[in-house]
Amino acid sequence: MKRFRFEIAETTDDPGLRALLRETPTDGNIRLTFCREPNFFDASVVEGHHHQTIICRDMDARGQIVGMGSRSSRPCWIDGRVERLGYLSGLRIDPKYRGAGLLHRGYRMFAEMHQQDPLSLYLTTIADGNERAWNLLTSRRAGLPEYYYACDYLSFAIPLRCSSKSLHLPSQQGRYVLQRGSEEQMEELIRFWRSSGRGRSFFPAYQLSDFQNDGIMRGLQPSDIMIARCQRQIVGTIAAWDQMDFRQTVAQGYGDLLGRLRPLINAWSRFRKMPELPEIGQSIALRLAALPIISKEHSDCFPILLQALRQLCSGDRHRYLVLGLTEHDFLLKTLPRLPGQIYRTRLCLVRWANDQDSQVDKYFQASFLRQSPPYLELGSL
Q: What is the DSSP string of 86-97?
């Protein structure tokens, strides 16, 4: 019997999947794990309508899960039409098994899944600085698909001050009226997002069912959405998405210098009423700035919406608001100077070598992505 067995995960594999996520932290000054408690499969719904996870078992270790990777898909706008696009994510290999050739065997299974359910294009993200993964995945070795760098994806981790100052809505802000979303406004919001998303690459083709309890926007309530109106028309949105009940970012350790300085940093943070560096094993209390969608004619309302969202989130259990934008997003030009850290991730387009399509070829051109800037929903990565 072969030592390593690859198969599609089932619900009974949930404990092993969550254990592998807990045991594979990122590198860096702050080592993080991206957990999916209390249920891996319930958390995965935000990645796409159709989701499958490949697992690798070590049969010499009683079938322990030592590797995993996920493939999901959802309908997205690209080049003015809706197509079903794929997303490759969650690649994890137990450190003790790196170098055992598991990656290539896992990708062979991805290729088989692609043949059974072909998609014209896949997206994936690789953290900036993870050169080991970058060099390996872009090597085009036998069995691996072709990876093309598209652009950088910027995540702004904005600290939230402890504040008792409340935000009263609706509120007149210059020529804009800010208000919270509601069930009655959801159909109008869907129309706005469809209209605004047509000119973006990879923008999700949202529908009402996505905002139900088991939809891809799980946990986001209509009242979490902030709306900007001008002359009664919706011209911008942004939302505070709390995923902590099913997806967590956990601090697992600090570099030597940061670890020694953490007590001093936290003392200064308390004095300034800013978030402290968490204890090891503690989840980072954050909200995601979802649906940052603004009509180009009203781009000046984006800083207003963002500031209102920061105020709305201040004073609750959350300590950070995380905003994600691609480097080609026109909203970057209107973004005010923000406190906190910026994290870079490389967005890549992926396809298998035998999938040659002239229509798809143009998606890989830098000029196309500048004209039709990519959009990624941070909470779905």
A: EEEEEEEE-GGG
CA distance 379 to 58: 32
pLDDT at 356 over 70: no
CA angle 259, 92, 373 (to 5 degrees): 90
How far is it, in rounded angstroms, from Cα 150 to Cα 326? Answer: 10
Whether 54 and 69 have beta carbons less than 8 Å apart is answered as: yes
Residues near 40 by Cβ (< 8 Å), separated by ≥ 6?
14, 17, 18, 21, 53
285-331 confidence digits (pLDDT tens): 999 999 999 999 999 999 999 999 998 888 777 899 999 999 999 99
CA dihedral of 133, 65, 36, 88, whole degrees rounded to 10: 40
Q: Set out the domains of the chain in order of their start, with CATH numbers.
A: 4-152+345-380 (3.40.630.30), 158-246+280-342 (3.40.630.30)
Please tell me the total number of residues recorded for the chain in this structure: 381
Q: How crowded is the C-beta side of 308, counted as CA atoms within 13 Å?
A: 27
Asked if 70 and 105 count as a contact pair (C-beta separation under 8 A), the reply is: no
- CB under 8 A, 24+ apart: contacts of 368-372: 368/201, 369/150, 369/151, 369/201, 369/328, 370/328, 372/78, 372/79, 372/199, 372/200, 372/201
* Token pair belonging to 261: 């300085």
Number of alpha carbons in the 13 Å side-chain half-sphere of residue 348: 21
Asked whether 372 and 200 are in contact (CB, 8 A), the reply is yes
Supply the pTM of this predicted model.
0.93
Give the DSSP H or E segment for 46.
none
244-270 burial, b if ≥16 CB within 10 A, otherwise e? bebbbbbbbebeeeeeeebeeebeebe
Per-residue CA distances from 78 to 266, 354, 379 (Å)? 45, 21, 20
Average pLDDT, the chain: 91
Cβ atoms of 78 and 120 within 8 Å: the answer is: no
